[in-house]
Design brief:
binds magnesium ion, single chain, seven-stranded mixed β-sheet, Rossmann fold, 3 domains, about 550 residues, elongated, 12 helices, about 25% strand, Ribosomal Protein L25, Chain P, binds adenosine-5'-triphosphate, nucleotide-binding, alpha/beta
Length: about 550
């Protein structure tokens, strides 16, 4: 079972199915197409689609497209792609709130006729003043008592484009003294001459979120409408709308806590800022906590689903350390990724007693526990590369790698001994001369222990590969919550890690020249890597580091 364990929403659903309140459940994932999906959305997708899957129900994909200024077809396309990539599918065609504009309008007309909505002319500032505060009740707008006929006439003319933008609104007539500010005559329509990505210029009035959302849920026969906690105080409005229009069914809204990831940002608006200010290469930059960025980074759908199961669903704070995300990804890759060797910072070695007739290559499995992944040859030659870090002139105690006069095993090959060190004028080690113990292929050396095993490549067979190493994007846990001396939030872009990406020229096994984009490998001892979705070619391999082998966040 790959979806979140028992949690309160599952309990509610099980009760509703058991009591016969619902025969089937129907959920929805309702993104606004104003940006790319991020890790928080991934949690919501796993919840909504996961519940439908678990209880044999249906989950709709619905674009909540009522703010035309910020929405686009590009975002619609990317959201569809990301949901599918995460492994989920929606029933039929995706839905759009804009498909319901005519219905929403008709319900508004009915509310006006019932005396439950009125056209207001207060401007934004006046409306704020009339609204009151948490401790003070609001005041009725002077336009609140217009007749239904007058309201109907004005609303019809709002739609017809007779009034300038912002000059009038349609408000629900609920209660200006309500303890819940959301019920103090909320605006449900505003005038806005903005081109809509689907309806074009057909409308110059657009419905507001709460009104639209409740009715869209009911139109789609949603049973459980799941949203994040900040909408808890909107629930009475959601219910009010459905109680006051003639529509079948009354979906129930339940709230869970928003996922927040430390050292990261989960807000489309702020992620958009990173893109537009060129702090990253795009929404799908591998450092971005977007679904498409994480995909390009090499995260797997299975790993993200495992993560979302782990973080769980509750009403308590859901602030998660990056190590939880990386842990889930690593755990899944450990089993699913074939292995190869790569050398990121090469140090050349000449094997001085290399002998074509005597020195043998071996083959090695691509995965230690998955025979079906096959094997590859690990060729050896007179010149090889090892990692610079695996040699030290003055090693610390307990050094298990190579040093002058010391021995080490080349992974899947012989034990070698360092006989001579070649340095440049500045004293930097530039090459080693080593000897092979030809008795050690697949055998322990006689009369001594060689503990260290290092990865390496034949210099003649290795292929060049560009490798991109990624670090955290921000230098502080909560980049968007740091206050300056004046008590104001500092711009989160002040906390960008200036060293979050490094590209190096490395070497890899020849198999790198055969890989398709988005192929994942473990580079032994180094971490998990993926061939870049866009920049990798078989002629010029490009690997992105997905995650290191060990948790580098705590040491
Ligand atoms: P943002 O602030 O990033 O724009 P949003 O909530 O406005 O997020 P929507 O497109 O409206 O974004 O979100 C679609 C769905 O995803 C909503 O049901 C919302 O509750 C859920 N969602 C968004 N962010 C998170 C998060 N951080 N954790 C859990 N669910 C989230
Ligand atoms: Mg939203
Ligand atoms: Mg939003």
């Amino acid at each position: 079972e790959q979806f979140a364990d028992n949690h309160f929403i599952r309990t509610i659903i099980e009760d509703d199915l058991a009591s016969g309140k619902h025969k089937h459940i129907h959920t929805r994932f309702p993104p606004e197409p104003n940006g790319y999906l991020h890790i928080g959305h991934a949690k919501s997708i796993c919840l909504n689609f996961g519940l439908a899957y678990l209880y044999d129900g249906v989950c709709n994909l619905r674009f909540d497209d009522t703010n035309p200024e910020k929405e686009s077809d590009e975002y619609v396309r990317s959201i569809k792609e990301d949901v599918q990539w995460l492994g989920f599918h929606w029933e039929g065609e995706p839905h759009f709130a804009s498909d319901y504009f005519e219905d929403l309008y008709n319900y508004a007309v009915a509310l006006i006729k019932d005396g439950k909505a009125y056209v207001d002319e207060l401007n934004a500032e006046e409306m704020r003043q009339y609204r009151g505060t948490l401790t003070e009740p609001g005041k009725d707008s002077p336009y609140r008592s217009r007749s239904a006929e007058e309201n109907l006439d004005l609303f019809t003319r709002m739609r017809a484009g007779e009034f300038p933008d912002g000059s009038k609104t349609l408000r629900l007539k609920i209660d200006m003294a309500s303890g819940n500010i959301n019920l103090r005559d909320p605006v449900i329509y505003r005038i806005r001459r903005v081109h809509h990505h689907r309806t074009g210029d057909k409308w110059c009035i657009y419905p507001m979120y709460d009104y639209t959302h409740a009715i869209s849920d009911a139109i789609e026969n949603i049973t459980h409408s799941l949203c994040t906690l900040e909408f808890e105080s909107h629930r009475p409005l959601y219910d009010w709308v459905l109680d006051n229009i003639a529509i079948d069914g009354h979906p129930r809204q339940y709230e869970f806590s928003r996922l927040e990831l430390l050292y990261s940002i989960t807000s489309k608006r702020k992620l958009n800022q990173l893109v537009t200010e060129n702090h990253v290469s795009g929404w799908d930059d591998p450092r971005m906590p977007t679904v498409s960025g994480m995909r390009r980074r090499g995260y797997t759908p299975e790993g993200l689903r495992l993560f979302s199961k782990r973080v769980g669903i509750s009403k308590s704070e859901n602030v998660v350390d990056m190590s939880v995300l990386e842990g889930a990804i690593r755990e899944e890759l450990e089993d699913s990724s074939p292995r190869m060797m790569a050398v990121l910072n090469p140090l050349k070695i000449e094997l001085i007693n290399y002998d074509e007739a005597l020195t043998q290559s071996r083959s090695a499995p691509f995965h230690p526990h998955h025979e079906e992944m096959g094997e590859r040859e690990i060729p050896i030659a007179r010149h090889i590369y090892i990692e610079q870090d695996d040699f030290s002139l003055n090693p610390p105690p307990k050094w298990q790698r190579l040093t002058v006069g010391g021995e080490v095993r080349l992974r899947y090959s012989y034990v070698i001994k360092c006989e001579e060190v070649i340095t440049d004028e500045a004293g930097n080690v530039i090459e080693l001369k080593c000897s092979i113990d030809h008795d050690t292929l697949g055998k322990k050396p006689e009369g001594r222990k060689v503990k260290g095993v290092i990865h390496w490549l034949s210099a003649e067979h290795a292929v060049p590969a560009a490798v991109r190493l990624y670090e955290r994007l921000f230098t502080v846990e909560r980049p968007d919550a740091v206050r300056g001396d004046d008590g104001e939030y500092k711009p989160f872009t002040e906390f960008l890690n200036q060293h979050s990406v490094t590209e190096i020229d490395a070497y890899a096994e020849a198999v790198a020249n055969t890989l398709a984009p988005e192929t994942r490998f473990q580079f032994e001892r180094l971490g998990y890597f993926v061939t870049d979705r866009y920049d990798h070619t078989t002629d010029a391999p490009v690997f992105n580091r997905t995650v290191s082998l060990k948790d580098s966040w705590h040491d």
